């Protein structure tokens, strides 16, 4: 583990090995992390257990697809109130499956996972129908696919200087323009993104 990493994060190797579960946190990609799929990524962590981890990338727009077009493809007829719902590339796993990250004012007994006081996630077609009908969550982000890690894999990537960890803020997920989300997450940690070189992401 590099001294620069320890200086940036205040974390030692022992700290990384004892990382608590990261549900409801952001993973923020360090410059030069080495995986182009996650360059400048901000990932909202939905689940983290000894068996692995699952999160949704919140700052990579889906290519050539918006919410109205998706609703048309799924043959869901709505009122048009959901035209502003953003569609993101959530990650490389199951990219044909949709996950809605949203505020906690919406809850479906059969498919919503409460994450914390600010966020929940629903992965059923019902939430898309409700959004299209104007009955969905007030704040929402639709992600196609997810980012997944096997047992110990994420901890290894953190130890290899790939990710920073910070609290997830609703104003970044739902209220910050997509191109600014990585910088906003970095600034929430007290870092000036312009001062982080690619070397900072390498051991």
Summary keywords:
single chain, about 200 residues, 9-stranded mixed sheet, 9 strands, Alpha-Beta Plaits, VC0467-like, 7 helices, disordered C terminus, alpha+beta, 2 domains, globular, disordered N terminus
* CATH architecture designation of the largest domain: 3-Layer(aba) Sandwich
| Poorly predicted runs | 1-18, 198-203
Number of domains: 2
**What top-tier CATH class of the largest domain fits best?**
Alpha Beta
Q: What distance lies between the first and last C-alpha atoms, to the nearest angstrom?
A: 6 Å
CATH topology of the largest domain: VC0467-like
Helix-strand string = HHEEEHEEEEHEHEHH
Percent of residues in helices = 10-25%
Largest sheet: 9 strands, mixed
Q: How many H/I helical runs?
A: 7
Q: Provide the gyration radius in Å.
A: 17 Å
| Fourth CATH level, the homologous superfamily of the largest domain | VC0467-like
Query: How much β-strand is present in the residues?
Result: 25-35%
Q: Helix- and strand-based class?
A: alpha+beta
């Amino acid at each position: 583990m590099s001294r620069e990493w320890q200086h940036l994060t205040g974390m030692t190797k022992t700290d990384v090995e004892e990382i608590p579960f990261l549900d409801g946190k952001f993973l923020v990609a360090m410059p030069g992390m080495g995986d182009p799929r996650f360059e400048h990524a901000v990932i909202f962590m939905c689940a983290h257990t000894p068996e692995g981890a699952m999160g949704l990338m919140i700052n990579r727009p889906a290519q050539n697809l918006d919410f109205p077009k998706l609703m048309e493809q799924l043959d869901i007829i709505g009122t048009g109130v959901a035209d502003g719902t953003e569609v993101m590339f959530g990650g490389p796993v199951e990219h044909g499956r949709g996950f809605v990250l949203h505020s906690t004012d919406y809850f479906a007994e059969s498919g919503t996972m409460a994450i914390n006081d600010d966020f929940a996630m629903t992965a059923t077609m019902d939430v898309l129908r409700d959004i299209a009908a104007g009955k969905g969550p007030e704040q929402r982000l639709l992600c196609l696919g997810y980012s997944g890690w096997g047992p110990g894999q994420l901890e290894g990537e953190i130890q290899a200087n790939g990710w920073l960890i910070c609290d997830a803020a609703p104003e970044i997920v739902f209220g910050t323009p997509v191109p600014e989300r990585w910088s906003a997450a970095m600034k929430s940690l007290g870092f000036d993104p312009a001062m982080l070189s690619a070397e900072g992401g390498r051991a």
